[in-house]
Structure formats: C-alpha cells, structure tokens
Specification:
Number of strands: 8
Helix content: 40-55%
Distance between the termini: 61 Å
Strand order of the largest sheet: 1-2
Radius of gyration: 21 Å
Order of helices and strands: HEEHHHEEHEEEE
Structural class: alpha+beta
Number of helices: 5
Oligomer: single chain
Largest sheet: 2 strands, antiparallel
Length: about 230
C-alpha cells in the first residue's frame, strides 16, 4: 500500500512524463516525423466517428502540438501547487522561502491557465503585486505590472523552469527516493537535436548534396524567432 506522499510523488511524476511526451510530440510534429494515423472508424460507447471527422492535416497537427505542450506545462504547474498543499501546512507562510515561493509561483501560473486556458492572463492578488518570488537557481517571477497582462514565458523563465521546479518539489520537498533525472543513463538517440527556445538544430553526419555553399564569413544570419547565427 502506497503512502499519501508516495501517491503525490507519482502524480507529480506523471505530470512530468506528460510534459516530456508532449515535448517529443511537438518536436516530431514540427519536423513532420510524427505519425498522424487515426482509426478509419472509431466506436466508443454509443458514439461512432469516421476518419474524416478526426483526421489531422500537418498544419493542424503542428498547431495542436504547440497547445498540447502548453497544456502539459500548465498541468505540471498545477501538480506542483497541489503537491505542496498536500504535504505542507500553510505553504504561503512557510519560513523556507524556497517552499513558499515555489507554491506561489505555481499557484499564479495555475490561476492564469485555469481562467484563460488558450490565452492565459496573469491574475495576481493586490497584496502580491509588485513583489519578486524566487526559488534559488531555478525560477523567478516578478509580479510588478503583471496583473491582467497576457502570459509570457519570459515572465517566469519558460517550460524548462517549470520542469526544474517540479524536480525541486519532488526531490527536495516530497523527498522522492528515486533516481534524479540527471542521474539516469540512457543510450544515445537515433537522431541528435539541440534546441534553443523554438529553434531546432539537427546533427548530420555529412552535408547533404543538395546544400549550396555560400561565403558567409563575418555575417549575421537571421534565423527567425529572435535567433541569429553569427559566423566568424
């Protein structure tokens, strides 16, 4: 029989797994490697749908995968908030600021998502406006002028900051005895990618024959999305 804490750890880990899967789906969909197969006929309970009712075009899958990734990120924040509440009495007034700030940040993100799931808006109570909430070396949220503003990943550091916050809660607060993600040993993936924000770089063994050689020494190439390649 699992203890209450073990159940909470499992729930938070499940949220992390969903985020990791959503990240893989988004990458594969962006690169058009994600299969989009659906049943030609699907019966569930009293309802029946055919392929043309549920099938996805590539552009629809790319759009949906972005929202799936967003939803998984916010679900993780909700899991963090619920996990802290379950084991820490009165988390807002905890002496350990890392604990209280972790709770507050997760709560603010959860609130923004809950009220406006497709276009989150910050909803910060007046007494918490103009304050800075920090979990050391993991995440920081400055609520100055955030209330009623559209949600932006730059406000809190992005999805990986939420993932790290989940790790902090799971291992430092809930005392998960399992292996930390950084301690896992996995075989190298078939394809190696490096991602910075939304920019995806794929490692290739050789330059494709179709590639054109150009002289770009000393130039800056705009890659879009705020990314630039500086060639020296």
């Amino acid at each position: 029989m699992k203890s209450k804490t073990e159940e909470i750890i499992g729930q938070l880990f499940a949220a992390e797994l969903q985020f990791r899967l959503a990240s893989a789906v988004r990458l594969a969909t962006t690169l058009k490697k994600q299969p989009l197969d659906l049943p030609v006929e699907w019966v569930h309970g009293k309802h029946r749908v055919r392929y043309n009712e549920v099938a996805l075009r590539d552009d629809q899958a790319d759009y949906a995968s972005w929202h799936l990734h967003q939803s998984a990120t916010f679900l993780m924040a909700t899991g963090i908030k619920n996990a802290i509440v379950a084991v820490i009495p009165d988390p807002i007034n905890q002496r350990d600021k890392n604990v209280s700030n972790a709770f507050q940040i997760a709560r603010f993100i959860r609130n923004a998502f809950t009220h406006h799931p497709f276009k989150p808006i910050w909803s910060i109570e007046k007494k918490y406006q103009g304050k800075k909430f920090t979990v050391a070396d993991i995440i920081e949220l400055d609520t100055t002028k955030l209330h009623d503003k559209p949600f932006d990943w730059r406000h809190y550091g992005g999805p990986l900051a939420i993932l790290r916050l989940s790790h902090f809660v799971r291992f430092e607060i809930l005392k998960d005895k399992g292996k930390k993600p950084s301690e896992r040993t996995l075989p190298k993936p078939k394809n190696e990618y490096i991602q910075q924000g939304s920019l995806i770089l794929k490692k290739v063994k050789k330059i494709p024959k179709s590639a054109k050689r150009v002289n770009i020494t000393g130039k800056t190439i705009d890659l879009g999305g705020g990314h630039k390649l500086i060639v020296r």
